Amino acid sequence: MNTPIKNTALIGFGTVGQGFYHYLVENNEDKQLSEIVIKDASKNRIPENLNFTNDVQKVLNNKEINTIIELINNDQEAYKIVKEALQKGRKVVSANKKMIAYHLEELVALEQQFGGKFLYEGAVAGSIPIIKIINEHYAFDEIKQMRGILNGTSNYILTQVFEKGISYEEALFQAQEAGFAEVDSTADVGGFDALYKLLILSAHAFGKFILPEKVLNIGIENISKSDIEFAQNNRLKIKLVASAIKQNNKLVLYVLPTFVDEKNELFNVNNEYNTVEIVSNNIGSQTYIGKGAGKLPTGHVVYNDYSSLDSNKYIYKNVSSGKKLRHETNEFIWIYSNKITLVENFLEEIQLINGAKGYGKIKIKDLIKNKQLINVNKISIITLTESELNRFITDYRVDNKLLEYA
Amino acid sequence: MNTPIKNTALIGFGTVGQGFYHYLVENNEDKQLSEIVIKDASKNRIPENLNFTNDVQKVLNNKEINTIIELINNDQEAYKIVKEALQKGRKVVSANKKMIAYHLEELVALEQQFGGKFLYEGAVAGSIPIIKIINEHYAFDEIKQMRGILNGTSNYILTQVFEKGISYEEALFQAQEAGFAEVDSTADVGGFDALYKLLILSAHAFGKFILPEKVLNIGIENISKSDIEFAQNNRLKIKLVASAIKQNNKLVLYVLPTFVDEKNELFNVNNEYNTVEIVSNNIGSQTYIGKGAGKLPTGHVVYNDYSSLDSNKYIYKNVSSGKKLRHETNEFIWIYSNKITLVENFLEEIQLINGAKGYGKIKIKDLIKNKQLINVNKISIITLTESELNRFITDYRVDNKLLEYA
After folding, report:
1. Quick check: helix, strand or coil at residue B400?
2. Which residue in B has a C-alpha nearest to residue A296's C-alpha?
3. Residue B171 near residue B161, CB atoms below 8 Å
C-alpha cells in the first residue's frame, strides 16, 4: 500500500476554499492535503478529521509541503504567503485578483527565478478558462481588443434591478446570500474587482503590467433609479463593462457602466454570469460566457489549476512587445450622466436630454481626476459603446436636441 | 547554420490549406514543409518555389516526413491517407469532419497502437478551440448537454435571408464567394456537416462513437418563405441547431432547424459565426462563440494543432462510461411544419396554426424514417426549444386554438 503523499496545504477555507476541497474529495485526492490554514483554528470545522491550523509560517517552512493553494480574502496577507512560497520554489495556485493585479510582475519574476509554478485561473472570470485560452489559443495571434463583464456581483445586481424591479440594496443582499458577492462589496460595486481582472488579462494579452491606481474604474454604486428608467424607456440595459483596446502602440483601458442594446452580445449575459469578448488579428471576434462566481464554478477552475501544476505554465509571451505599449488616458470617451452639469467643465459636445440628464465626450484622465467629485455627489457615469452612441447621435442630431424616445 | 528540417507534408491546398500555409510563413516555419500534395501538380501554383506533387504515396512512404497535415475535401481519400499515416506512427492533423465522424473510433485505436498523434481541432466549430476545452476544462466535470450552431454556411444563409430579405439562392452564392461554403453545399444545407461535428464532440464529451446514419439530421433546405415570414411575425429567428442531451444512460442527438427568440443565446449568433453551449455538473452553462469558417480562422486552429503536436494529446476519458450510454431515438420532440398534415400520421397533440401550418410532437425515429418523404415533398421541419415551446403552448392553449400573434 502506498503511503498517502501529504504535500499540499490549503490556505483559506471560505467559499472558494470549500469548493476546491469538494473536488479534492470527489477525485479521491484529499489524502494529499496536509494542512488547512484558517484564521481561527479553534472554531468547529467540518470535516473534523482534517488538520486545521492557524500557523501559516509552519506550513511555509515545512519542506514536505511543495504545493500551496492560497484562497484567503486579505490581499496583503495573501501577497506575503505567495511571495514566500515562490521564493521557496513551491508550486502555488491563487485566486486573489487584487493581490495578483498589484504584484503580478514581481511574482512572475520570482516564479522564474526560483523554479516554482504560479497559476491563477480562478482569479479571473470564474469558470471561464480565459487565461489558458489567451495563453494557448492566441499563442500565435495578436489580440487587439478585449471587453467583458468580469464582476458577477455587479451583474447580478443590475440584472435583478432591471428584470425584477427590486432595489439595489435588496439585490446586493441576495447576491451575498447566494455566495457570490465578496464579504465587503466595495470592490464589487465600485468596479475595482473588474479592474483587477482586466489588468491580469492585459498582462497576458498585451504583455503589459499596469497598477490599478493608474486606470479608470467607475462602478455601479452611483446608478440611480432614474438612470434605470431612462435605460428601460430606451430599450437599453446597463452593464458594468471592462475594456482594453490596443491601437498601434497605445493601450486604452477602463471599467465603466455601459449602455447596451439588444443586439449587443452583452445584453443577455445575466446574473452571476461573466463574459469575455476578444478581437484578434487572425480569428476575428470570439466570445466566452460562463458563471463568474460561486463555490463550485470557481472551485472547479482552482482544482483544474491544481491538477495541471506539473503540465501547465503561463508563458507571458507578449512582455517584450508590451514594453513598447503606452497606457493612454488622453483619449475621449462618450458618457451619459444623470447630473451632467456637475462635470460639464470637462465635457465637450455636451447635449442635454432632460432635467439634469445629458451626454458628451470626456477624456479618460479627467474622469480619473474627478473620481472623488463623482462619488461625493453620486453622479452616475454610463458610457456608450459604438452602436449605442451612433443611435444617440443619429436620433439626437436630427433636430439638434435630445429627446427621450419612449 | 542549421539545415532546415523538412519533415512536414501538407496534403490539400484549398481554402484551409492556404490558411495553414499563411501561418507557417508568418511564423517562419515554411522551411519545415517538404511537400504540398495537390490533385493536379501541373497547374500553376503560387508560391512557385514550393514542392508541389500529386504523388501521395511517395509522401507517405518517405520516412523523413513524420508529420502529415491532411486538408483535402474528399473524405474517402482523406481516410486512406490518415489511416496509413497513423499506421506508420506519423503525427497527423486533419480538419475533415465527415471522414473523422465516420472513422474516429478506428483512427483513435490506430493512434494508440502505433504511437502516432491525431489532432483535429479545425474539424469542429472553426476558430473555437472546443475539442481542447472539452478535453481539458471538463476533464473533471460531467457534461450533460451540448447544443450549438456548427455550420457556418447555413447560419450565414439564414442570417442574410432574415436580415437582408434576400433569397436563399443568393445567400448561398454569397457564402460560396466569401470562401466559407463548401464546394458542394448539400452537406451544409442538408445538416450533414453539423451532424458530423456534433458526433465528433459527442465522442469527446460522452465517450460515444455513433455513425452519422443512425442520427437525425434535417437541414435548412426545405425552409420556405412562409416559414420565414411566420418566424418574423412572431419575433423569432430560425437557426440550424445541433443538440446532444444526456439523461441517465440515454443520449439524445439531433440536428434540426430551430425557432429561437431574442432571449435565446443563439439569437444573436449571426453569419459565419458558430457557437457551442455546454451544460455540465460543476460549472453550469458555458457558451463559446467564434467564427466557424474561413481561410484564416480555420487555418489558425490547424496551425495551433500543428504547433502543439508534441505537447497536446486528446484523452477520450469518457469512453468507458460511454459504453453504458444508449443512443436513444425513441424520444418525442416538438416540431412546427408548413405542411404539417403530410406527417400527421406520426404526430401527437397536433395543432393547426393556419393554412397547412401547424405543430405537434413526434418521435425522433419517426423523423429519421420519413426523411425521404420530407425531402421529396419539401416539408419544412422546425423544432421548438423549451422556452419557445412554452410560449407556443401557453399562448395557444388559452383558447385552445392557434393564433399567429402579430
Report:
1. coil
2. B282
3. yes
The reply to whether residue A303 touches residue B268, judged by beta carbons under 8 angstroms, is no
Evaluate whether A361 touches A349 at the Cβ level (below 8 Å): yes
CB of A71 closer than 8 Å to CB of A11: yes
Higher pLDDT, residue B385 or B100:
B100
Which cell goes with B219? Answer: 437541414
- How many contacts (CB atoms, under 8 Å) link A and B? 105
The residue of chain B with its CA nearest to that of A126 is: B283
How many whole angstroms separate alpha carbon A381 and alpha carbon B357? 50
User: Taking CB atoms and an 8 Å limit, are B297 and A291 in contact across chains?
Assistant: no
3-state secondary structure of A46: coil
- Are the beta carbons of B304 and A139 separated by less than 8 Å? yes
From the list B127, B137, B290, the residue facing A304 with the nearest CB is B137
**Nearest Cα residue to B275 out of B161, B130, B160:** B130
> Nearest-CA residue of chain B relative to A28?
B140
A62-109 tens-digit pLDDT: 999 999 999 999 999 999 999 999 999 999 999 999 999 999 999 999
Annotated active-site residue B197? The verdict is yes
**Which residues of A fall below an 8 Å CB-CB distance to B?**
23, 26-27, 127-129, 132-133, 136-137, 139-141, 262-263, 265, 267-268, 282-291, 296-297, 299-300, 303-304, 307-308
Whether the predicted model's global pTM rises above the 0.95 cut: no
What distance in Å separates the CA atoms of residue A297 and residue A291, rounded to the nearest whole number?
7
Question: B37 and B10 in contact (C-beta within 8 Å)?
Answer: yes
Catalytic residue among B197, B239, B339, B357: B197
- H or E segment and range at residue B119: strand B117-119
DSSP structure class, residue A340:
G
Cell numbers placing A116 = 516554482
Distance, CA of A303 to CA of A300 (rounded, Å): 5
Neighbours of B148 (CB within 10 A): 31
Give the whole-angstrom CA distance, residue A272 versus residue A157. 9
Q: Which amino acid is at B192?
A: F
Picking from B174, B142, B143, the residue whose alpha carbon sits closest to that of residue B159 is B174
Q: What is the DSSP track for B314-326?
A: ---TTHHHHTT-E
Helices (runs of H) and strands (runs of E) counted in chain A: 15, 17
CB A50 within 8 A of CB A82: no
DSSP H or E run through A355: none
What is the grid cell recorded at A190? Answer: 465600485
Domains (ranges, CATH) in chain A?
Answer: 8-119 (3.40.50.720), 129-292+320-406 (3.30.360.10)
C-alpha cell at A4: 498517502
Could you tell me the maximum CA-CA distance found in chain A, to the nearest angstrom?
A: 83
- Rounded to 5°, angle at Cα B42 from B39 and B45: 85
Q: What pLDDT, in 10s, does the model give residues B58-114? A: 999 999 999 999 999 999 999 999 999 999 999 999 999 999 999 999 999 999 999
Contacts of A283 in chain B (CB under 8 A): 127, 290-291, 296-297, 300
Asked whether the CA dihedral B118, B119, B122, B125 is positive or negative, the reply is positive
Give CA–CA dist B73/B96, Å, rounded: 7
Say how far apart CA B320 and CA A385 lie, in whole Å. Answer: 49
